[in-house]
Structure formats: C-alpha cells, structure tokens
Amino acid sequence: MKIAILDDYQNVARDLAEWHQLPNGSALTVFDRPIPADEVAAALEPYDVLVIMRERTPFPASLIDRLPNLRLLVTTGQRNNAIDLAACQARGIPVCGTRMVGTPTAELTWGLILALVKRIPAEERALREGRWQTGLTQGLAGKRLGLVGLGKLGTQVAAVGRAFGMEVAAWSPNLTDERAAAAGAARLDKRELFATSDIVSVHLVLSDRTRGVVGAEEFAAMKPTALFVNTSRAGLVDETALLAALHEHCIAGAGIDVYPVEPLPAGSPWLDAPNTVLTPHLGYVTRENCEVFYRDALEDILAWRAGNPVRVLGA
Questions:
Q1: Active site residue 233
Q2: Does NAD count among this protein's keywords (predicted)?
Q3: Which residue among the candidates 233, 239, 299, 311 is catalytic per the annotation?
Q4: Which of 8, 41, 59, 96 could form a Cys-Cys staple with 300, CB 3.0–4.6 A?
Q5: Distance between CA 68 and CA 93 in Å, rounded?
Q6: Alpha helix segments (H runs only) across 35-132
Q7: Mapping DSSP to helix (H, G, I), strand (E, B) and coil, where does residue 252 land?
Q8: b or e along 96-119 (b: 16 or more beta carbons within 10 Å of the residue's beta carbon)?
Q9: Residue 315 has pLDDT above 70, yes or no
Q10: Does the annotation mark 262 as catalytic?
C-alpha cells in the first residue's frame, strides 16, 4: 500500500501520528510543498491512499480520472468543497474525513481585528526602525461589529465582541431574529449591516448560494472608516471589488486570511494592497488540530483496510 500525505507545509505529519501502525510493507511519502497543478496527476499516480489537507490541492473529476491506483481519499476536516465526491463515488473510492478541535478560526479573526485597530504590524515595524508612536490606534467599546454569518464561528466572534463592549449585529440569508438574539446580536438587513458597522467580519459556508455574497455594492455602502475581515473562504467575496475598495480608500483597511489562489503567487495584487493585515490561511492551522487531523487520518486508513471505513463523507 502506497500512501501520500499532501501539502504538509509545516512538515509535521510524520511526528503527529503513529504511522508505524500501518500494515507491513506500506510506504509513506510526505509532500511538504504544493505540487504544481500541471504535475499533480503524474506525481500522485502511483498512490493507493491520499491524505489531503483541506482544500489546498483540489480534486476535481478530471484529476480523479487520472489516478487509476487511488482507492482511498482522506481529507482533514468534515467538509471539502474541492473534492468531486460524485466522481469518487462513481469510482468506488471512499472519501473519509477527520474531526477538528476548538474554534481557532474565531481566534484568528480577533487576531486580525486587533492587529488592524491597534496598528500592531505598523507600529512594531516603526519601533524596530527607531520611530515611536506613529499614529493613533482605535478602541472597540461602543463600536458596531457586523457579522456576515452567525453559525458556530460567528457566534464565537460575537461573544468576544460583546466582551469588548461592542454592539453586535448580524446578517445571513436564513438568520432569524430569535437566532440572532440567542447569540447576543441584532439582526439587520444586509445593506444596513454594511452601512452601519465599524468592523464587518465574514463567517459563512461557501456554497453556490453564498459565492460572491460580498461585492462592490456592499463595499460601497461601508463607512470610509470601517474595516473588513475575511477568515472564511475567498469565494464569498468579490476579490476585485475588495481590492478596489482598499486602493480607492472606500474602506479603512482589511484583514485577510483566505485567497482565490493559495499559496499567494509572486506578483499577487494582495502583496501591494494598502492598509491590510495578511495571513497565509492560518485559521485552522493549530498544533491541536493537526494532531487530531493526522491521528484520525491514520485511523481512517486502518479502518478502511479492515473493511469498515469511518467518517465517510457523503455517506
């Protein structure tokens, strides 16, 4: 059995699970860098089992059809929009997931918000360059936090906002007054949320219905002093509209953790975007999560090998 672990950027997979439990004769390969898109099929063709990290490497039908030896696909997490499940099912390839722990993306959301309002990157840079207090920071008490999405992560972000003395408002396609009130938020319509919030943070699941849910109209409605944060999925936001809003100073700044192309290529317009704090899709990348990811991945492989696959997606 030939097994490959993909996109282990931190090179930790071998240390976070007891891979010696694999059947005798198994061969384990770890790819710690992205495989170029035009080389993926050739690189992965020999493997029976692939363990992939969330959506880092897409698995459309066109790729799955070029992997004749593939018998099991394991993805970290319980949802992966980059896998064509129907194509896997047509080939009889089970797709198994893993558990996750905590809500680290909510934590990162607040890291980006605080970095923006407290000017942490700019002031840290200035201090090292010999300058002292180069601008005014902002307080959060009394400001409005607008949440696009109020599920598990949005509710966590709302709780922290209230702890800082913020007024919390929310909108999503199916949000009710009762659900918003239970999370300590006021339900607003979409335009009012963008027009009146001092900070807007996105926490929706990407689907056909939500793709591009934030675009030029929403950014045009925002205050010029407002901040925008996206730690969910790049596809929720019109990237061109957001970059234009930043360059044209329609909004004051943005904290971004997710991008249409990852890793960011050289020359990406994000690298020159003004008034931004950028992180390389760190939302779920905690030691605690990776420990669970790779231990569960090993369990998935052993259970499948024994004829009893677990955590099967789409089952």
A1: yes
A2: yes
A3: 233
A4: 96
A5: 11
A6: 40-44, 61-64, 85-91, 104-117, 120-128
A7: coil
A8: bbbebeebbbbbbbbbbbbbbbeb
A9: no
A10: yes
Rounded Cα–Cα distance for residues 7 and 5 (Å)? 7
Is this model's pTM higher than 0.90 or not?
yes
Same fold, 2-100+286-305 and 104-278: yes
Correct CATH for 2-100+286-305 of 3.40.50.720, 3.40.50.1370, 3.40.50.2000, 3.30.70.580: 3.40.50.720
Q: Pick the catalytic residue: 107, 123, 262, 291? A: 262
Residue 217: the pLDDT is 98
pLDDT at 102: 87
Catalytic site includes residue 203? no
> What tokens does 189 get?
């319509």
How many whole angstroms from its chain centre is CA 31?
Answer: 21
Of the candidates 56, 144, 203, 281, the residue annotated as catalytic is 281
Tally of CB atoms within 10 A around 240? 11
Q: What is the pLDDT of residues 126-139, one digit of tens each?
A: 999 999 999 999 99
